[in-house]
Amino acid sequence: MLTISNQIKPINFTKLGCKFEIDELWSFIGSKANVTWITYAIERATKNVVAFFVGNKSKENIKTLIDKVLLLNPTAIFTDKLNIYPSLIPKPIHKRFQYCTNTIERKNLTLRTHIKRLSRKTICFSRSKIYLEAHLKIYFWG
């Protein structure tokens, strides 16, 4: 799986002025005691994943993802009510309404259905962060 994922390059998303949604979902690495977060951004119209990150929900980690999205000069970035986002996303383009993240929340459910290791009630989980990232890379861009 690692050799396949190393051959896959992220989509080269260069369209400027789009709308994006950013969200996170949790999973396990190694054991159920070791929770990790998958934070990713999708372009709202095409539903393509622009970038993702596997790790904890710290401001520094999420900032790298948001910086990639901000380089695309977005007209709007939709997020949930996580308290980290307002300090990272400029206020004029940051939207936090009740139903603004329906597309990415639906994608979260699809991910949990398609990828067994992301299912909530399961005995399957990733043994390492490298394999989880490889699996997501193949799923998103393969």
UniProtKB/TrEMBL annotation:
KW DNA-binding (keyword) present: no
Keywords: DNA recombination, Transposition
Ranges in a coiled coil: none
Highest taxon in the source lineage: Bacteria
Family statement drawn from the similarity comment of this UniProt entry: Belongs to the transposase 27 family.
PANTHER family per UniProt: INSERTION ELEMENT IS1 1 PROTEIN INSB-RELATED
Function summary: Absolutely required for transposition of IS1.
Name assigned to this protein: Transposase
